[in-house]
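Still learning. Any example?
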Amino acid sequence: MSWIKKNALWCALGGAVVMAILIWGTWQGVHYTSTTEFCLSCHSMRTPGEEYKTSVHFRNASGVRAECKDCHIPPGVVPTLVRKTEALNDLYHTFISPSIDTPEKFNAKRAELAQREWARMSANNSAACKSCHSYEAMDHGKQSANAAAQMTAAAAKDSNCIDCHKGIAHHKPDMSSGFRDRYKQLQQQGEKLSTATTLFSLSEKTLTATAGAPAGKALLFPATQVKVLQKEGNNVQLEVTGWRESKGRGRVITQYMGKRVFSAVLDASLMENVKVLQTQTDPGSHQEWQQVSVTAWTSAQGLIDSITPVWEYSDQMLQSTCSACHSTPPATRYTANGWIAGLKAMSTYYRLNPVEERTLLKYLQTHASDVSEPNK
């Protein structure tokens, strides 16, 4: 009986030793495969690795380096093991079906990979970032005035770091292909003039006093509602209704009284076509405004019968443009006039052409905090 007990004890001790070795070996394996050297040894990580080496997280004045695991593996044993299990997918795409093994392939999937990683970081409220960067440890007196204001507000809400700090270690993806493809579809839709009498402009369009006249400085702005009066060849006569200040030259037509939401700008040739419908005083500025209508000619292309797809395209542009750096702001963040300065302040951070920018601005303005029309 004592022999059985002795052997059982040795078996238990042996099992415990084997288990300890397995646990220790597994954890050492997890630790080793989490090192930056291991991560960058994969051929598919060459492109992001080179980008990381040029970032502030690799080399900086303080000499504190953030390794790959510090950003991509959340703290804690369970989150680490979960993330490691998810990473088994990388082995498949490395050895069985290579999908990012060249710079060209990586850039083709950059947006998909970035959005996946941003979503993962958002899900745990940027736990990996906050394991090094603590709101409580920040000295706002040593930050710039703008940074201190932003970080104070972020700390009050315990904001997600990745909302504002995308692209800090790797190049941000170009998110424009989606909304630009959508715009091409709208252009195709606008190649043939709709039979509807109420249409909306897709882009800027030149306006003239007579059909086929040389273009001057008059323009119809994107996302402007017009009424079709007649068609002549490849040209249509439109009526634009809006507001203008009573004082001044009266060439700028806005969608709303007192709000700089531009519908059209006229030149001298069109001033005789302007009809004053009514006069009101704007309660906000106490300035006198006139509601007017003006008739003008333009080409038949670039007009569609619903504003909804234009706003869907604009919202996609907003999501793609803003999400490359931070969370998308609600259109109600500013007033219609406030969005002019609000969007301009961010102009150095996005890459939109002038027409795209004007379309996006109009979308934000018509959905702003002080605009409550049901048919925006």
